[in-house]
């Protein structure tokens, strides 16, 4: 308690001296006050929540005198932050956050958005549901020619995308874009505010990414925080006593609405299944029986999934006879295109089909091959390989993966597979879009229409990654070869 009392009297003292100080000293004191607020805010918020909980307990037990004392103590702490720019703000610290692509953290600042998709992710981030805006300070400069490339021109502005990583169909309120314009010099940081976002869950994953690659610019960010756009509504003593009853009412209403929504979805799904050709209906019949059990309210978890083999559904992917639903194993992948997964209590090695990533070890014989493939030197190829390794780890971590694989040969210890993700599709496409993998498709195509369609899509994506301005990932670095020689 002495700690909080000292903080309170510190801010009272600062306020009393402010009217007597010169402008410069007043600004310095305000900066010190903001720093102290930032450092102590999270602990203070947790303590305020604990005081509020104890206040409600005492009020429910009828001990209103003790409840009043807890309220007064809580209000004194909350008064410290009233009128501050940081009131209710949640700091997005880079400590413990996961960096993606080429992004780098130096102390409390973030930079080096050279490749598309570079950025930072905060996993399992705790946040009180509500409306927020992202606030930060940014500096944008031209990169030296030796660092970027004489062939690439610095951008007048860069765009960053921020929001919640979610599988919801329409998370439009959870994602915003922030535009950063060129700064006069390296000392000038511009304060920026994003549009409003609405977060509905207390535990979520947030991600800040570069909308494109910026190899000819130096971008620096600092002071990232989420600021509520409206004040938290205070709950009275009387309301707190009825909170449990009100919550139970909301739960019942939500359960009823979810049941109604599920009926409509099940009906539409059933109609789609009944339209599938009867010659490929063995898996369809099993799925229809499962839907009948769901309609009878039996205890079975709803899971929408296609039949076991894509060949059963489309009849076009010849040579693929295994579909495995799994998750990424712990630890870093062996490379961007090679990793382990958990399946039925054991680990399986997986190699992505039709794409190749650069290796992550300097003595790997494949390194020179991939350097020539990307038209970069060996050092850059190694950097791209390690970026692909980290990207694969971050992108696949915690997601349900569907592996459409070929049968494993007796002499082999790894699955050759196409990897699909919910709401994303083929992961090979993602690596090519980011410029972190090169195409390694079969030269002779004797397969069906479905496989050829997938292969053609991969070819188009690699071409787009090469030719867009600026190019993605390794293809942006390939522009540098002529200047290095």
Q: Which short descriptors sum up this protein?
A:
485 residues, alpha+beta, Jelly Rolls, 4 domains, seven-stranded antiparallel beta sheet, five-stranded antiparallel beta sheet, 13 helices, 23% strand, disordered C terminus
Overall description:
The chain has 485 residues and is an alpha+beta fold. The protein folds into four domains: 2-86, no CATH class; 90-228, Jelly Rolls (Sandwich), CATH 2.60.120; 245-304; 311-484, OB fold (Dihydrolipoamide Acetyltransferase, E2P). The protein is built from 13 helices and 20 strands. The strands form four sheets. Strands 1, 3, 4, 6, 9, 10 and 12 form a seven-stranded antiparallel beta sheet that branches. Strand 17 and strand 18 form a beta hairpin. Helix 2 packs antiparallel against helix 3, helix 5 packs antiparallel against helix 6 and helix 8 crosses helix 9 (378-396). It is globular, with a radius of gyration of 28 Å. 28% of the residues are buried. Mean pLDDT is 77; it is low at 298-316 and 481-485.
Could you please say which CATH topology of the largest domain applies here? OB fold (Dihydrolipoamide Acetyltransferase, E2P)
Low-confidence stretches: 298-316, 481-485
Cα gyration radius (Å)? 28 Å
Distance between the termini: 66 Å
CATH architectural grouping of the largest domain: Beta Barrel
* Mean residue pLDDT: 77
Return the structural class.
alpha+beta
Q: What does the main sheet amount to? A: 7 strands, antiparallel
Using DSSP, what is the number of strands?
20
Report the top-level CATH class of the largest domain. Mainly Beta
Strand content: 15-25%
Number of separate domains: 4
